[in-house]
Amino acid sequence: MQITFTAQQIATVLNGTIEGDSSIVVNNFSKIEDGKPGTLTFLANPKYTHYIYTTDASIVLVNNDFVAEQPIKATLIRCFNAYAALAMLLEMVEKSKPQKTGIEPMSYIAESAALGDNVYVGAFSYIADKAKIGNNTKIYPQSYIGDNVTIGDNTIIYPGVKIYHSCVVGNDCIIHSGAVIGSDGFGFAPEDGVYKKIPQMGIVRIEDEVEIGANTTIDRAVMDATIIHKGVKLDNLIQVAHNVEIGENTVMAAQVGISGSTKVGKQCMLGGQVGLGGHITIGDSANIGAQSGIISNIESEAKILGSPAIPVRNFFKSSVVFSKLPEMYRQVAQLQKEIEALKSNKK
Questions:
Q1: Partners of residue 203 on adjacent β-strands
Q2: Is 165 a known active-site residue?
Q3: Helices (H) and strands (E) in the chain — how many of each?
Q4: Coil, strand, or helix at residue 6?
């Protein structure tokens, strides 16, 4: 944190309630278990509650319903949602940092490209013919913006991002380093023992307020568009295949893989390494646990886990049995022998 705040100033911004010294000052953030004097931390996960009694952080954000069971030396600021409050403060600090603007030397901008006001283009970036870059957008060094690409206002393109021709990126998006937007979908047709490439003639369309993690790849459509709807958040190292559609405000953790033409609904949550088969539909608000393998349609609000995935409660019940299967197998085999012996005796 580059700016100094008092507990009173923070509480005013968050509409929170102070318990302790309202004049205490902080100038940085810390984790609650590693809290240091002069820093602000938060408590949102009950697993970390014991640290609030020992942390050396000066201010701790807590939820309104937090009940202390021991004395706490830190100043508390109670708010509706401690985690969301922390996010708000971090965003304030981020926005207070000096903002880059202007065109750095050694970048290339085609004459037919159109740049808005207050655009930043870093060194060694390439902006191709008829590309359109919105106001206040930042394109960091070594990025490639292809022909006819459109990028909206207030979007950040971090170093080394590649956006292929004709793709569309909305307003207030963030695309992290190494991401590739609009590479060819994996389309090949078998013919006489070889695979013939199917031209990928569509685009990728990314709507507003989307964040795409480092080294994530989103393939262009065969026809029409691969669509990432408003508010979607994708972690690092995710693969989105051609003609996929991801609904508003869906979030996905690292290493998710989505096969072609699959549609994911709104407000879904996918854990790390989830694999979605092709041409299936995931309903709105589905919650899919890490490493789940999905090969058929999933209903809205389903909670599933496993590979192949099953309802999450069934998976947890089954997981208790997994380690006992070898012994159960031996017991079943022994019972089968005994049954056969009884049948022989009856004869």
A1: 225
A2: no
A3: 4, 40
A4: strand
Query: Which of the residues 50, 165, 176, 242 is marked catalytic?
Result: 242
Task: Give kind and range of the element (H or E) at residue 120.
Answer: strand 120-121
Give long-range contacts, CB 8 A cutoff, 24+ apart: 159-162: 159/122
- For the record, the structure tokens of 310 come out as 């099953």
Nearest to 268 by CA among 254, 250, 256, 244: 250
In this structure, what token pair is assigned to residue 180?
Answer: 């590739």
Q: Which parts of the chain fold into alpha helices (H)?
A: 7-14, 82-96, 312-322, 325-346
Helices 7-14 and 82-96, axial angle in degrees (round to 10): 110
Residue ranges of domains in the chain, CATH in brackets: 5-96 (3.40.1390.10), 102-262 (2.160.10.10)
Neighbour count for residue 278 (Cβ, 10 Å): 14
Q: Per residue in 90-130, pLDDT tens?
A: 988 888 888 888 999 999 999 999 999 999 999 999 999 99
Phi-psi category of 54—alpha, beta or left, where left has phi over 0 and alpha has psi -120 to 50? alpha
Residue 305 tokens read as: 């886990």
Which residue has tokens 């013939």?
196
> Distance between CA 103 and CA 119 in Å, rounded?
8
Global confidence as pTM: 0.85
pLDDT per residue as tens digits for the range 250-271: 999 999 999 999 999 999 999 9
